[in-house]
């Protein structure tokens, strides 16, 4: 919303930035955001792709309380070239059986059970990551200088791992003359460089309009399973700071507080986020080579189930209430 637009705000509480994933009501706002905040380092995707991503909660946004959007980033599904169907391997059968067991243990709340067909991706690309450029928008003074990029990318990576789990990994491509983003992704978020295979290049190009893109070369970086614990810790710390004292905006020197009431990653998925950040599962993932996101998700399911069983068996539990079983 334009900063001069009338608002019904009457209280004197300092305003906060709301962080959340989108739904079908956000389609127009997301399209408008990208139409008004073009940048040579952000390729234009097809409107139909942006709409579908928005509807299905695959866009993460930050907005102010007047619904002025200040930041957006999008997850795109990439599929490998389909192979000829073959008889499932023993490992696949075991994994499927484990998933079925844990889904029923958690009261049928396993996300994959109800996941739309389009989520069975081999890779998820995070892209279209853009901060508001228009000084006339009301969110501008809070968002510009806040440096939310590492939080946005880490959050969307962990969320995609938990909810839309690609087989292999999460990845991104950055123009090689975009030093700030390469630096942040590699050094702050903890992603690594890699060389993409042709299937990734083709899937990426299929989401975009054909012409008018920047011509610089690109660097590709990926979030492998060993990077998840650092990202989970970064999210927990930044959200803790952001919801208590607020995050320092280096441009205005003001602290900006975050409202995470609608941010499912730190509400619905808090137990999973904590398990990824600290403890035996985090240690295992962090000190192992990349095992693939799907496999790491099976480990997480195992870990959470074991934790629930441990809690039930504790002799010191003095009330009769069962421990709550959160979705991952
Ligand atoms: C990328 C973007 C979303 C990040 O926004 P942001 O989180 O608000 O971060 P800022 O742009 O304010 O600054 C980023 C950081 O990079 C640092 N930086 C700037 N130029 C740098 C460079 N050449 N090398 C290393 N670091 C650099 C800044 O100092 C700042 O870090 P600090 O807060 O620790 O000082 C925003 O810059 C943007 O919209 N850029 C245009 C679109 C784009 O490039 N998108 C990414 C596509 S892959």
Key phrases:
single chain; 328 residues; alpha+beta; Aminopeptidase; 9-stranded mixed beta sheet; 12 helices; 40% helix; disordered C terminus; binds coenzyme A
Tell me what the structure shows.
The protein is an alpha+beta fold. The protein has a single domain (16-76, 90-311), classed as Aminopeptidase, CATH 3.40.630. The chain contains twelve helices and nine strands. The chain has a nine-stranded mixed sheet, sandwiched between helices. Strand 2 and strand 3 form a beta hairpin. The longest helix is centred in the C-terminal third of the chain and has 21 residues, at 293-313. Bound molecules: coenzyme A. Coenzyme A binds at residues 39, 41-42, 129-131, 145-149, 174, 178-181, 183-184, 250.
Question: What is the fourth-level CATH superfamily?
Answer: Gcn5-related N-acetyltransferase (GNAT)
How are strands sequenced across the largest beta sheet?
A: 6-7-5-4-3-2-1-9-8
Low-confidence residue ranges: 4-11, 102-119, 314-326
Q: Which molecules are bound besides the chains?
A: coenzyme A
Oligomer type: single chain
* Helical stretch tally: 12
Largest sheet: 9 strands, mixed
CATH topology: Aminopeptidase
Mean pLDDT: 85
CATH class: Alpha Beta
């Amino acid at each position: 919303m334009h900063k001069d637009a009338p608002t019904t705000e009457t209280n004197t509480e300092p305003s906060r930035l709301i962080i959340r994933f989108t739904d079908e009501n956000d389609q127009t706002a997301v399209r408008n955001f990208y139409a008004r905040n073009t940048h040579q380092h952000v390729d234009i995707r097809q409107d139909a792709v942006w709409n579908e991503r928005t509807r299905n909660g695959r866009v993460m946004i930050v907005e102010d309380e007047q619904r002025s959007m200040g930041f957006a980033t999008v997850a795109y599904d990439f599929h490998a070239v389909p192979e000829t169907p073959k008889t499932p391997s023993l490992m696949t059968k075991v994994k499927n059986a484990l998933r079925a067991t844990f889904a029923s243990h958690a009261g049928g709340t396993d996300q994959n059970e109800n996941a739309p067909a389009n989520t069975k991706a081999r890779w998820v690309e995070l892209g279209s990551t853009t901060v508001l450029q228009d000084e006339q928008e009301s969110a501008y003074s809070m968002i510009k200088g806040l440096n939310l990029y590492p939080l946005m990318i880490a959050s969307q990576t962990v969320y995609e791992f938990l909810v839309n789990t690609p087989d292999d990994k999460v990845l991104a491509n950055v123009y090689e003359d975009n030093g700030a983003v390469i630096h942040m992704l590699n050094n702050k978020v903890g992603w690594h460089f890699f060389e993409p295979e042709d299937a990734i290049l083709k899937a990426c190009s299929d989401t975009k309009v054909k012409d008018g893109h920047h011509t610089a070369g690109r660097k590709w970086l990926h979030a492998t399973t060993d990077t998840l614990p650092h990202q989970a810790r970064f999210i927990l710390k930044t959200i803790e700071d952001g919801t208590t004292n607020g995050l320092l905006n280096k441009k205005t020197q003001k602290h900006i507080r975050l409202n995470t009431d609608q941010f499912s990653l730190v509400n619905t998925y808090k137990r999973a986020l904590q398990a990824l950040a600290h403890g035996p599962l985090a240690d295992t993932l962090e000190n192992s080579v990349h095992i693939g996101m799907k496999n790491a998700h099976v480990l997480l399911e195992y870990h959470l189930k074991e934790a629930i069983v441990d809690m039930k068996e504790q002799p010191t539990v003095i009330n009769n209430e069962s421990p709550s079983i959160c979705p991952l």
